[in-house]
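Milestone 3.1: sequence recovery, worked example.
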């Protein structure tokens, strides 16, 4: 069973940067796509960014496009989310997400469907707070 551990969250001023990490264990990381979602208080967990298992396909939410970059290092079994030009509305708990089937590249709609069906594995989350 996959284990996902996020780190790198914290408090930052608007305009600042953070890099989140997601350490994967329990299965062959390089065979699976991965993603980042976030959840603000009182809101649904929303898609942020995803990367294909080969790393060649990237999808971003419109709200973070041009500011966030998702990446992966298969040699370290770790995924990353570099967040620049942070805004107060980026404040949320950020979750690493992993699908349960290997060698499949999912589009955003598929990721959201898996989220809704409960067929995604999640990390424990890391808090990101952006002050104005």
């Amino acid at each position: 069973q996959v284990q996902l551990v996020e780190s790198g969250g914290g408090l930052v001023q608007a305009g600042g940067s953070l890099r989140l990490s997601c350490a994967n264990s329990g299965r062959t990381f390089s065979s699976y796509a991965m993603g980042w979602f976030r959840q603000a208080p009182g809101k649904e967990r929303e898609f942020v960014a995803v990367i294909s298992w080969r790393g060649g396909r990237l999808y971003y939410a419109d709200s973070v496009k041009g500011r966030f970059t998702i990446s992966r290092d298969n040699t370290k079994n770790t995924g990353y989310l570099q967040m620049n030009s942070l805004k107060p509305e980026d404040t949320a708990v950020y979750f690493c997400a992993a699908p349960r089937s290997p060698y499949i590249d999912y589009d955003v709609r598929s990721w959201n469907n898996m989220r809704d069906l409960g067929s995604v594995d999640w990390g424990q989350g890391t808090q990101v707070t952006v002050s104005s």
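The mean pLDDT is 96. Residues 30 and 75 are 8 Å apart (CA to CA).
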